[in-house]
Design goal:
Rossmann fold, 257 residues, 39% helix, eight-stranded mixed beta sheet, 8 strands, binds zinc ion, alpha/beta
């Protein structure tokens, strides 16, 4: 049962390929239900190579991210921050506010506040603050379009491998059934060919696509599904309290815990 009219969903994660790993199956469901989808990354993935220069790998990875977004029918933006140098500071916050005022999302997907990589945690905080701040007219008053009329609904994706920096499990509040969109998610992730070699060397992750499928199966199993993506909703003061994502996806959304 679907009872929410289509809106605009923005995935704003740190690096190219994060959306494909963490939320592309859910984005595909929303697009199929008439939602407009936009993918943005803080960086162009400039540290994701042992051989290419910053400029070379950034160009390659912007192209890979754009190709993945095209498969989904989504827009793509890079905020041109630097890998491993993402901080909660006025400059990146201003970029987030500007993006939000331009895209005007109903629903925003961000990194988990607790994750393995400080870039992800900083991105999470910047997006959380940006969602609130983009609705404050006197903050960055000449930045992009007029301030948002309301704060968008904010959901955090799973941390990588479902664990925080201390290795503790981070259970999702809801799991989205991505069985029907898993193949598209895999094709989107496969556009990031530059990262196969990198992850094999740096992370010991040789089976890039299989690792994604394995985690999707793990997350799905939490709700008795063959494949899933997990999310937690930000329910702090001022943010929408209704389950916008759950209402949009109806029976595909399963509450956990
Ligand atoms: Zn990342």
């Amino acid at each position: 049962m679907i009872s929410h009219s289509p809106g605009v969903v923005l995935s704003l994660l740190a690096h190219p390929d994060d959306a494909e790993i963490l939320c592309a199956g859910t984005l595909a469901h929303l697009v199929a239900r008439g939602w407009r989808s936009h993918i943005a990354t803080f960086t162009a993935g400039d540290c994701g190579s042992m051989e290419l220069t910053i400029q070379e790998i950034s160009r390659v990875r912007r192209g890979e991210a754009l190709a993945a977004a095209n498969l989904l029918g989504a827009g793509y933006d890079c905020l041109e921050e630097r890998d491993l140098l993402l901080f909660y500071a006025p400059k990146p916050l201003r970029k987030v506010v500007s993006l939000l005022r331009r895209v005007r999302p109903t629903l925003v997907l961000a990194h988990s506040p607790a994750d393995y990589l400080p870039d992800h945690e900083m991105a999470s905080l910047l997006v959380r603050a940006g969602c609130f701040n983009a609705a404050v007219p006197n903050l960055f008053p000449r930045c992009g379009a007029p301030a948002l009329e309301r704060i968008p609904a904010l959901y955090y994706c799973d941390p990588l491998e479902g664990r925080d920096a201390l290795g503790r499990a981070v259970p999702p509040g809801l799991v989205v059934d991505i069985h029907d969109t898993l193949d598209l998610k895999e094709r989107m992730l496969a556009t990031h060919a530059s990262q196969r070699d990198w992850l094999a060397r740096q992370h010991g992750m040789d089976q890039y696509l299989q690792a994604m499928r394995d985690f999707a199966h793990q997350r799905g199993a939490l709700a008795g599904l063959p494949a899933g993506e997990g999310f937690r909703q930000h329910l702090g003061h001022g943010y929408p309290q209704g389950d916008v994502l759950g209402l949009a996806l109806g029976d595909l959304s399963h509450r956990c815990g």
